Amino acid sequence: MKKKVLFVFVACSFVCSLSYGQQTTREKLKSITIDHFFTCALDQLMDTLATRYNIPIVFERDSLHTMDVNEHFFVESLKNVLQQVCRENRLQYWIENDGTIYILQQPDDLPRLKRQYQLQQLSRNFKPAKLPEPKHPPKHFMFALTGRVTDQNTGESLPGATVKIRGANLISQTNTSGNFTILNIPSDTSVVEVSYVGYQSDIFRLDSNSVKGGVSFSLFPAMNNTLNEVNIAGKKSGVLNTDSKKVSVLQLSPAMLDKLPNIGERDIMRAFQLMPGISATNESSSGAYVRGGTPDQNLVTFDGFTVYQVDHLYGFFSAFNSNAVRDVELYKGGYSAKYGGRLSSVTEIRGKDGNKKETSIGGDLSLLSTNVYAEAPIGSKSSALVAFRRSYQGPLYDKLFGQFNTATTNTNPGGRGGPAGGLGGGMGGGRGGFANQTTPSSYFYDMNAKYTYTPSSSNTITWSLYNGTDRLDNSREMTLPSFQTSSGGSLNINDDTHYGNLGTSIKWTTSPGRKLFGSTVASYSGFFSDRNRGTTGTIVDSSTTTTINNGILENNRLKDFSLKSDWEWQTGSKMKVLFGGFATRQAIDYTFTQNDTTTLIDQHNTGITAGGFTELDINPTDNLHVQPGVRATYFSPTGKLYTEPRLSFTYKLTDKFNVKGATGRFYQFTNRVIREDVAGGDRNFWVLANNSNIPVGTADHFIGGFSYETNDYLFDVEGYYKKLNGLTEYSIRQQGGGGGAPFMGGGGFGAAQTTTVTENFYNGSGYAKGIEFLLQKKAGMYTGWISYTLAEAKNKFDNYGTDYFAANQDIRHEFKSINMYHWQRWSFAATFIFSTGHPYTAPIGTYTLTTLDGGKINYLSVSEKNAERLPAYHRLDLSATYDLLKTDGSKRGSIGFSFFNVYNHVNTWYNEYYIRNNQVITTTVKYLGFTPNITLSLKIK
User: Fold this and answer.
1) Fewest beta carbons within 10 Å, which of 169, 205, 589, 878?
2) DSSP symbol at 128
3) What is the spatial distance between Cα 103 and Cα 766, in angstroms, rounded to a whole number?
């Protein structure tokens, strides 16, 4: 069928310029009033408006001619008239940045109407001028241009926007605060081209005022931000993107997260797990397992302060509210000398500043949580944002906690020895096929607040606050199976975990000169975790009644006071110097008490880290980018200075083909140590390195790769090798005995051994290596990517033997397929994940020992460290999202339907073990099966 003929009415000789653009059209819509009675077809009304008010309106005549208007408008603004007739006929209108109004039946009509409009203009031999001629001859030459790129609607800065001088080989990208500097501008009449993903690219004419002070370029959002389509050559518009011109960098667009399947709601940290090199098989954690590293080896910052616990509610939510986040970058390795204190990776999260133009209120409602936010300008120089989330008990909540009652029990050893990344027991902690959840009272809440004050164009001061708390109650009753005892028995297990984060920062950004930009942050970050687990009850066996009464108390506290200052100095058109200093004081306390009498761990440590860094950002040729740097850190507990050289480079062989590489030394002074517990699941706690049994961690990164990129596709390959030293694990061991893992959950029978229980910190080394493949379709109605990672992560601890063994997070093969399709207002997504199973340590026997206070503890004798593997992991997730649009085409919200684990393959998480009559009872704990969810997101104002 032939397409409908496009009719375009343009009054007089329309000239598209900066003085007649989107802003001018919007002002006309507000200021022009109409007092008239219309009885005509809708296309005739559009003709009348376009002719009378000199506004270009583009529409399909055949469609609008079938729609009638019969209205008397009494002194109505032109905007209200347009909104009313569009609303009554189920249409939207959209204003492009050149001032043209497009009348749309479906959002997808916009690209087609624009193309046909351009073709028709060419056929009429009429080409609108993009810019007016300069008002005066050039007066200034070869000067430095500084400025900022912002969102026209909200005033938010746009980091990573591209700023280019037309006709000259001068280009720059805005930094994290949206600022840029370009040297050697040819003249003050030059034309500047500005573009950013999800926004309409625009052009600006400089004038003599551009020389005097910083300029501000504001971009209008593109409707393509809703449509998942792109109109900026070489730019990507997906949810997650790889910057092919940088080494191991991932970028995330929080506004697009609702297009992906989810369990709880839009999840920043879990979205990264869909990219190569980041494990996606840890449903119980939003933490990033990056290239064989553990979550504690990933530095996570929010507005400058460190976040030590990155998830809520057993990992079903990340700690970060997407409504309060502006943009996120994750560096998978080989990162800048600006960052330090971690061995594996860096995740830098920057919060929204708050709407500087108008009040905005909105939120999300799902089957698990409520999420609300508000942002508004305060006067002419300030803005504020507040966001709050809280979980609540509902159908999906009950399903999650129903997992406590669906585990499988058997008497054969096997399964993973606990969730090595869980906090305070994670989602486990002793439930099984014979356990009953009695108090499903777990919940979480978090709150973000931010205030931004801009006293001048060159200075901004922001205050940011985050507070998040979880209360996880896994208490339950356990009825022991009769086939294990003659008369059975029952146990009451109390398992209560309370943890959370508190972080705040004050940040000052300044541009004291055209070539200098600085950012100084004073921050506090606190983390706490309290766990109380106890077992009481009776067991009747052969007419003998045994009373059980034991338990553990864990308390972990961390306080972090930091001050850091980062600066950028544009020394020339091809070189930038980055430098800065930092200082941090940390205090960490951890106590582990058994049966209220025996303190097994009592750690109280403080330390100061201080130092500085310097780095060069050099472009010696148009094709080569080199970034050498060095970081030096003094650590007070050891009294030593640690030097970290860094180097990264990219080289453009052709316009589409890049090669890249990076290397560097990295140190970590604060570690979350694994406390081995094969029976009940490994636990973690934060400790500070010292000069004795907890060494400073060390990593050396070696990264190389290449990428081939077109406007539509990206093929990226990266290989890496990491050498690790100073790894630490903790275990409770028998003094002078050989191996064993304690069982804390209940009594048993067997020969007692009189001995003492000691704490042991074991030190080791390791390596991680792998190669990652990514094929991504970046633009169009169908977008997505497939990735494959071949990897190996191994450790070596002397107490486990002389050979390397698989690390807890070792995954040999991982394949991911992410597919997204847009159709009108609908967005569909399908994600498939497959990986080989995690390694685990299996029990092979039992024994009993007597503590100093006369108590008896049953122990498991275990196999070689991580010698077995869980079954392969795989699942398919689906989602469908319907965008809710206002009459003017802007997004009001969305309704999302998510289906987790569609074909209900229940993956194994780990196993717990109970000792009865010297037999090992294995409880297999599973991940979630098929789980649906629905989320409503609305922008109320």
Assistant:
1) 169
2) -
3) 61
Q: Are 670 and 636 in contact (CB under 8 A)?
A: no
Q: Based on C-alpha coordinates, what's the Rg of the chain? A: 31
- Which residue, 635, 673, 666, 688, is CA-closest to 762? 673
CA 208 to each of CA 54, 131, 181: distance values in angstroms, whole numbers, following the listed order: 31, 16, 17
Residues 6+ apart with CB under 8 A from 529: 309, 423, 424, 497, 498, 499, 554, 555, 556, 685
Q: List CB contacts of 313: < 8 A, sequence separation 6 or more.
A: 264, 368, 391, 400, 442, 443, 444, 470, 472
CA distance 492 to 912: 17
**Which pLDDT score is estimated for 9?**
37
CA 209 distance to own-chain centroid = 40
DSSP assignment, residue 17?
B
Outline where DSSP puts E strands in 254-351: 298-302, 305-306, 311-312, 317-318, 325-331, 345-351
Directed axis angle between helix 42-53 and helix 78-88, to 10°?
160
What tokens appear for 350 in the block? 């920057």
Note the Cα 195 to chain centre separation in Å.
Answer: 24
Which residue from 884, 877, 302 is spatially nearest to 562, judged by alpha carbons? 302
E-strand spans in 336-488? Answer: 345-351, 360-366, 369-378, 382-391, 408-410, 435-437, 443-456, 459-473, 476-479
Locate the DSSP E strands across 595-652.
598-618, 624-635, 640-652
DSSP 8-class letter at 299: E
Cα of 599 vs its chain's centroid, Å: 38
Given strand 345-351, what is the order of strands in its sheet?
Answer: 240-242, 249-252, 325-331, 345-351, 298-302, 305-306
How do the residues of the chain divide into helix, strand and coil, expressed in percent and rounded to 5? 10, 55, 35
Measured from the Cβ of residue 136, the count of other Cβ atoms closer than 10 Å reads 9
Backbone angles phi, psi at 210, to 5 degrees: -65, -20
**Nearest Cα to 178, choosing from 207, 217, 205, 223?**
217
* Residue 656 burial (CB count, 10 A): 16
The model's pTM is 0.82
Pair of tokens at residue 755? 């001995």
Q: Using alpha carbons, select from 739, 734, 733, 728 the residue that is nearest to residue 761.
A: 728
Mean pLDDT split into 10-residue runs, the chain, 941 residues? 40 36 79 89 90 88 89 89 91 86 87 79 56 78 88 85 86 85 87 85 85 83 53 46 74 72 73 87 75 91 92 79 89 94 93 90 86 92 94 66 48 40 36 41 88 92 95 70 56 79 95 90 94 73 66 88 95 92 94 74 88 94 93 95 96 93 96 68 77 90 94 92 91 48 38 49 92 90 92 90 89 93 88 91 71 64 80 91 84 86 85 68 76 84 73
Query: How far apart are the C-alpha atoms of 711 and 590, rounded to whole Å?
Result: 53
Please name the amino acid found at residue 811.
I
Closest by CA position to 858, among listed 407, 550, 410:
550
Rounded-to-integer distance, Cα 918 and Cα 411, Å: 11
Q: Which residue has the tokens 């900022």?
A: 148
**Across-strand partners of 6?**
60
Contact between residue 848 and residue 752 where contact means Cβ atoms under 8 Å apart: yes
Q: What's CA 765's distance to the chain center, in Å?
A: 29
Q: What is the DSSP letter of 678?
A: T
Q: How far apart are CA 203 and CA 184, in angstroms?
A: 19
**Amino acid making up residue 414:** G
Residues 6+ apart with CB under 8 A from 824: 106, 107, 108
- Cα 237 to chain centroid, rounded: 16
Instruction: Count the Cβ atoms, other than its own, within 10 Å of residue 621.
Output: 11
Give the chain's end-to-end CA distance (angstroms, integer): 41
Residues written for the chain: 941
Q: What is the DSSP letter of 259?
A: G
* Backbone angle region of 643, left / alpha / beta, with phi > 0 → left and psi within -120 to 50 → alpha: beta
